[in-house]
Amino acid sequence: MENIEQIYTGCLAQGAYYIESEGEVAIIDPLREVKPYIKRAEEDKARIKYIFETHFHADFVSGHVTLSKETGAPIIFGPNANPSFDATIAEDGQEFSLGKLTIKVLHTPGHTMESTTYLLKDETGKDYAIFSGDTLFLGDVGRPDLAQKAADMTQEELAGILFESLRNKIMPLADDIIVYPAHGAGSACGKNMMKETVDTLGNQKKMNYALRADMTKEEFIKEVTEGLLPPPQYFPLNVKMNKEGYEDIDTVLKRGTQSLGPAAFEAAANETGAVVLDVRHQEEFAKGHVPRSIFIGLSGSFAPWVGALIADVEQPILLVAPEGKEEETITRLSRVGFDGTLGYLEGGLEAWKKAGKEIDTVDSISADVFKQRLDNKIPVFDVRKETEYAAEHVEDAILTPLDFLNDHLAEFPEKETFYVHCAGGYRSIIAASILKSRGIHNLVDVAGGFKAIKEVGIPVTDFVCPTTLKK
């Protein structure tokens, strides 16, 4: 169907949807910056008629509030939603006409209690596609632990409700129906998502462990709740913003794009307690950066790492960004609710150095040099995820996952030199910046990470044994 466009944002592993028929448009789960949707509708000589939300998102701030304000289109949630702003709370089975198409509400609680799947019917009334939000992913289903406090239920109770939703509302649908999920591989909203972003329901019934026809509810609850890592700390704060509203993105951009000379930048950092966030490439950061600044580069999974590591969406932020990337950075921060950017360093690090300000560096070595030094028994810290470490790791390396680095600070040597590596070099520089901001400077980064380590023939193992460093 030519009327549907999936607008996929790789950094967030998030899918928003634009559906048009006969000059009428529905947007499902829009991102924070809404101008692209408005512009697209104008190009189609169409009007945005509905804004559908599948649930109160935890991993990003949706653009529903601003989009409704700018277009007059109503925001539609499924049953059980109770937002602080005006919205249509649809009933299970309620239908909305969109040109020649129809969108039917299927209440599918379990990931959250308001979670809703939207079933799109074509002009003949035939079921064509589902927009499944976080209820059904490709290869997985939404984790049932995020709404425990709000719903006053255990994750096992929510998983049981999700089982019923899938069996009663999703699985009876025809195999040729297209599944458009809210997220793909890389999102923290599930465990085993496929890298593909569109599939048929029939293929999911074959491929997705959670849709096995012979699965009991007890088996489903066990498998869905098994191996869930703690959610990032910013998730509840994003839910709150999606439920209660937020500032317009234009206001956030205007405040954040203030250029500050080195003296004003330093004064702002001292007076406001702002985090200095450096978003350049990791190699540039290693060569020189503002002391105690945190590195999270735009080239990686920027917004989720900001959310996981800075955590407090109200934290003031000052930026060191590549020239011309300031607005993009502020926009991407706002997608996960970080609206407190106060300005950026005009002229970047070069201006900082010319002003005679102090700079810091990260000691970084190649995998070849690392191989030569390994015989010295210097401790090695691996900041990848547990699953990556379990698959393969440097012998005797100590696992300190970046997501939870602050929980491992006591394990790093106080004086002895140690090495830090990740998979490819991005996360280890993030880790190095956090450690240095905490006063831990006796570290050496292994450039190129585990990929480079394997290429030079350093011995690795898949033997997993809990390893902690005794000081």
Automatic annotation (TrEMBL):
Q: Does the keyword Metal-binding apply?
A: yes
Domain Rhodanese intervals: 270-361, 374-462
One protein family per Pfam:
Lactamase_B
Query: What superkingdom heads the lineage?
Result: Bacteria
Family annotation (CDD domains) = POD-like_MBL-fold (cd07724), RHOD (cd00158)
State the Gene Ontology terms under molecular function. Answer: metal ion binding; sulfur dioxygenase activity
Gene Ontology biological process: glutathione metabolic process; hydrogen sulfide metabolic process
Name the PROSITE patterns for this protein.
RHODANESE_3
Keyword Transmembrane helix (UniProt): no
- What keyword terms does UniProt attach to this protein? Metal-binding
Q: PANTHER family given for it?
A: PERSULFIDE DIOXYGENASE ETHE1, PERSULFIDE DIOXYGENASE ETHE1, MITOCHONDRIAL
Give the protein's recorded name. Glyoxylase, beta-lactamase superfamily II
**Organism source for this protein?**
Flagellimonas pacifica
